[in-house]
Structures are given as C-alpha cells and as structure tokens.
C-alpha cells in the first residue's frame, strides 16, 4: 500500500458522510466527487431561484470533511423552520454556498474556497461546474426528467443519463475530477442511492471514460436496504450489474456487503419511507461479474433506521488497499 494512498469516493446524498468521517482521520489522500443533479428540497429551490448547482450534498460533505469548531458546522447545517416564510426549509450552508458561487462565478471555485475556510482534510469536487438534469427510462418505456420526479415515480428503472440545464447541452466534467480518478489508488462508490446519487456522476462522459481507464482498485459499498422506486428486490449483485452497465465495463473489483440481519421491528418505515426490505447477498452472481464479495457485519442500528458502520467500512477499505 502507498504511504499515503489516493482514495476517490463517488456519490451524493446522506450516505457518503458516514464513510467520509472516519476516512479523513486516516493517513490517506481523500477526494470526494459529488453529484450536481439534485433538484429537491432546499437545493432544488435555490437551483430554481438562481440557477446554481444544487448545494445540499456538497454542504454535507464539506461538514463531514471539515476540521473546525463544531459551532461552525452547526451553523452550516442549521435549517430555518417552517414559520420563517421565505427562508423556510433552507439550510444556512446552502445559502452560503449559493452566495460564494455568485462571488466566484462558479461552484467549483466556490467549494475550493469554502474548503480552505472550513479546513477540509482532502478535496471536494462537484462532478460538473453546471447543474445537471437526471433522466431515467423505466422498464415500461416511460421517460422522466428530474431526480425528485424519478424517485417519486416508484417505478422500475432501466437506465439513467444526465444532460446540461439547457436543452441538448452535453454534460461536462470538471477536469480535476477526471484527473483525480486517473491518479487514484482506489475508487469507492457509495454508499447511497444507486440511481440518483451514484450513477449521475458515473454517466458524465469524461468521468465514464476515466473510470474505464484508471488503474485504481474499484469498490462498491452495497446498500443495506432496498430503495423504493429504484432498487426494489435488488440483490447486491443486481446493484453491481447496474453500476457496471452504466460504466460500460465490469470494472468493479470488490463489493462490500452487510450480512448482519436488520430486525424488522426496529426500522421505522414511516420515518424512512424511501426504503423497503433488506438487500440480500448473491456471492455467486457477484463473482460472475469479476468482483469479490466482501461480506461482514457492517450494520449500525440508530434513529430507528439501518445504516453503515463507517468505522468498520473504513477498516475494510484499508485492508483491501493493503492486500492489493
């Protein structure tokens, strides 16, 4: 293993910070590549108001990788309550990122400035400097645009792709994103929503090509729970199949998969209404795709939900690096 291995983690949503928090404490060179296709919640409102890259996922990762007084991160994460009229539902950090984007002229430079201010350990790269639109074709042939619309459709997805904000505009990756992938010792996908957090990064053409060219070991962290309207009835091998298919080549070397049982009576399915049943493991089907399944108890039960144990995942990633 290199003295300071270069790890690139790809995704978005709330899953990435769980893994990032323990990773940034290790002797590694960490880069997070973050989706810019979100169009829901505070991020979606700001995107519609001032046409900026949605800042929510970026904010969460800035906080996860920062090394500042906790009071600063609390302010970044503070969300105005519903009685605050115009500011209702907005996170303070989203407004700060929006302001910095206007000041610097683009999201990429804004994030690099904020990363210095928040003493980020590693690098945070929005996958593109422009907001992207996620499109999905479902198994029944229907096509829907927009990440939130796709999620709420609750239908079986066949494949996804992204375009620029303007009709016919091709998505373009930030050059630093491509270089980070090519230089990496390890690429980590997830954890997070497969079709709406991970794949929107993967299908950007320059990113897609870099993922097929890089010599890095590639690891997929399989979700613990199936996601309604995205991965209903998916095994870990079916998650892997969709990921490899969108990359265009079976590049994934390892699948980290939780095999600890999630108690049915623990999860609050009303609070976590986007999930359904636990993902089952299919080691034989993973092997057919040229990957090694790494099963283990990676489960953390909290807040009436099932989450990855970031510390255990971090140790497994380092073990893979040591043995490669």
UniProtKB/TrEMBL annotation:
Belongs to the gluconeogenesis factor family. One of its GO terms (cellular component) is cytoplasm. Required for morphogenesis under gluconeogenic growth conditions. GO terms for molecular function: LPPG:FO 2-phospho-L-lactate transferase activity. It comes from Leuconostoc citreum (strain KM20). Its main location: cytoplasm. One of its GO terms (biological process) is regulation of cell shape. InterPro entries: CofD, CofD-like_dom_sf, Gluconeogen_factor. Keywords: Cytoplasm. It is found in: Cytoplasm. This is Putative gluconeogenesis factor. Signal peptide: none annotated. The lineage of its organism: Bacteria, Bacillati, Bacillota, Bacilli, Lactobacillales. NCBIfam families: CofD_related.
């Amino acid at each position: 293993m290199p003295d300071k291995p270069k790890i690139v983690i790809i995704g978005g949503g709330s899953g990435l910070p769980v893994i990032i928090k323990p990773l940034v404490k290790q002797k590694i060179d960490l880069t997070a590549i973050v989706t810019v296709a979100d169009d829901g919640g505070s991020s979606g409102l700001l995107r519609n108001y001032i046409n900026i890259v949605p800042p929510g996922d970026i904010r969460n990762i800035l906080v996860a990788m920062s090394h500042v007084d906790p009071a600063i991160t609390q302010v970044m994460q503070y969300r105005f309550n519903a009685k605050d009229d115009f500011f209702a539902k907005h996170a303070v950090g989203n407004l700060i990122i929006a302001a910095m984007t206007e000041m610097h002229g683009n999201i990429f430079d804004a994030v690099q400035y904020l990363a210095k201010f928040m003493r980020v350990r590693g690098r945070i790269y929005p996958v593109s400097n422009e907001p992207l639109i996620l499109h999905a074709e479902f198994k029944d042939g229907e096509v829907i645009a927009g990440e939130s619309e796709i999620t709420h459709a609750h239908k079986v997805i066949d494949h996804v792709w992204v375009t620029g904000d303007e009709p016919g505009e091709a998505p373009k990756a930030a050059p630093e994103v491509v270089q980070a992938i090519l230089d990496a010792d390890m690429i980590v996908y997830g954890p997070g929503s497969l079709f709406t957090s991970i794949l929107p990064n993967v299908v950007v053409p320059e990113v897609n090509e870099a993922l097929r060219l890089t010599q890095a070991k590639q690891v997929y962290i399989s979700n613990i729970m199936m996601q309604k309207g995205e991965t209903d009835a998916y095994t870990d091998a079916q998650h892997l199949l969709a990921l490899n298919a969108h990359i265009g080549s079976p590049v994934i070397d390892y699948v980290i998969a939780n095999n600890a049982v999630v108690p049915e009576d623990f999860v609050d399915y009303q609070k976590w209404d986007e999930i359904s049943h636990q993902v089952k493991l299919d080691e034989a089907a993973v092997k057919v795709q040229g990957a090694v399944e790494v099963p283990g108890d990676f489960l953390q039960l909290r807040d009436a939900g099932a989450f990855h144990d970031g510390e255990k995942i971090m140790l497994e990633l380092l073990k893979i690096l040591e043995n490669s």
